[in-house]
Amino acid sequence: xxxxxxxxxxxxxxxxxxxxxxxxxxxxxxxxxxxxxxxxxxxxxxxxxxxxxxxxxxxxxxxxxxxxxxxxxxxxxxxxxxxxxxxxxxxxxxxxxxxxxxxxxxxxxxxxxxxxxxxxxxxxxxxxxxxxxxxxxxxxxxxxxxxxxxxxxxxxxxxxxxxxxxxxxxxxxxxxxxxxxxxxxxxxxxxxxxxxxxxxxxxxxxxxxxxxxxxxxxxxxxxxxxxxxxxxxxxxxxxxxxxxxxxxxxxxxxxxxxxxxxxxxxxxxxxxxxxxxxxxxxxxxxxxxxxxxxxxxxxxxxxxxxxxxxxxxxxxxxxxxxxxxxxxxxxxxxxxxxxxxxxxxxxxxxxxxxxxxxxxxxxxxxxxxxxxxxxxxxxxxxxxxxxxxxxxxxxxxxxxxxxxxxxxxxxxxxxxxxxxxxxxxxxxxxxxxxxxxxxxxxxxxxxxxxxxxxxxxxxxxxxxxxxxxxxxxxxxxxxxxxxxxxxxxxxxxxxxxxxxxxxxxxxxxxxxxxxxxxxxxxxxxxxxxxxxxxxxxxxxxxxxxxxxxxxxxxxxxxxxxxxxxxxxxxxxxxxxxxxxxxxxxxxxxxxxxxxxxxxxxxxxxxxxxxxxxxxxxxxxxxxxxxxxxxxxxxxxxxxxxxxxxxxxxxxxxxxxxxxxxxxxxxxxxxxxxxxxxxxxxxxxxxxxxxxxxxxxxxxxxxxxxxxxxxxxxxxxxxxxxxxxxxxxxxxxxxxxxxxxxxxxxxxxxxxxxxxxxxxx
Length: 760
What we know:
5-stranded mixed β-sheet; 57 strands; globular; disordered N terminus
């Protein structure tokens, strides 16, 4: 999906290790709970939607899968996507490698869930359209956020016998279930094939992309399984099945005995990898191909048609690669169920001038491009999309009940055509961004200042937003001014909260920082970057009065500036990569935590020099301060309480929560907290004077999201088992609304919650 994939995989591995099995209370003191209402902060899309499937029998029923944000069901009456995997308690399962529907039962849906080949994988099964689920640990690995993740579908249900499922794995061949996905056995008759991804050719364009995405070979495996319902009858296993394998050698196989034995389809093209396999109602097979599995690169491709009746293969590629010097491949192909000779296809990685959507009404004999200057793109539901051309067009589908509706996926969401057939008479098509309810951003930083907008966000891939409204995509799109790809750090001056700073990357990973003097409405670059800022943006802090900025580039030395970045000076007494925070009241005080030594370091001279306090705290073995500070916190994070001087909290992922009221000279451990992933502060209760605490972590052996109204003495759980979102990070409360909390997820965007009972 993303240019954050390189380090996001590392973060997932750490979180997976720390999470283990979903935590449950184990006989300790029960934790009280309070009901909350949970909503997504509206941005619209923001991540790679890797697949869409319409149910062939029930009008208006469709599902979408994503690479890191779970799966969704479309509510046709409300015109809104409903998330169906928010109950997941582990980020391992939020990458959906494939999705399958039972053609004979509209209620049944299956997900092949597993984000990377080093994390856990499972088959998720539902018989009520995703309202409730059962889970089977998979005996094979998946890769919902790996190469080829838009290929498919590799999971399929027999249209004549819903007990039977096949899954083409990435590493372990073809598998079959005879009990609706509860148990699985390898299909021994399927050939063993090496599907290792190869590097893209070393062209000028791909050299940059190989460097940027840190290319690592991966196994792609069997990318598509397709039953031929014309070959069978209801109540009996379908005999004819096709399976496509991601290899440039022989790659399409068929079985005529229900999957017991397999043979190559004669006469097939070789030299390119198939990525989508579609069977038309008239029996024709259509395949799209790329030299690479995608999505990070694709330097060649094609579209072919196969007629099983006479065994004839026909090359129907709309536009040959390269075009005007631009190499590209083909992402997907689809067929109109009501008009089998009408097919559509999308190019992939055709960066210049842009990708293309092709349409044919004669089975691919001739094609027309749909994207030209007259094409209408409606950006009103998500204004940030105005600055983004559709790309990574990995799936395209035609509504089986409405030939006018065509959807294709991109690296940031779903576009939907509402009048596709007008193209057949030469008229321009109209497209809307169909992401109402579908939120797939990866938040990297969140702040809720006491004035101005209630929330500002830093996101992977799409920069960040000033959220004047939580229920509408920001009218002005992303931050006005310098445009980043990732915004990694955000901070505001506690006593002048209209002054905000942010760090980020953009333009092939170049590192930047910017400042706003008007509550995040407009931004300008800082004067320069500190040394050692090439590896990553890292974290940033600003003094209470807004005059001193401290920037720690990832794996670099902390530096401070008193002239908004015109000059930088190394902070003395700090190791490389340490995250620095500002005291909310005293503009000369700053703090840092050295996790390797278990020491708090404090500055009273405006970050010029730091010295260790007497406090002795747990050290985090192998802790990488730069990673922990720049990301969500791999080992420990230090926080300063708003409106107090020297009131600090230290949250450990494995050692719990510690509190200091004297600037870090000493700390008290909160004994009820075993793990503290993220901590935030919000508005106090009516009769209190200390901010409300919000904690993502483990209290009395229960992993959840908690609130404390008494400075951590007691905790109440505020989420529930249906709202776990895979992972919760970057927690912050709202300083103006009691009970409101915001947090980031690993791919479900930004979530906010309010007590059902209302505010105090």
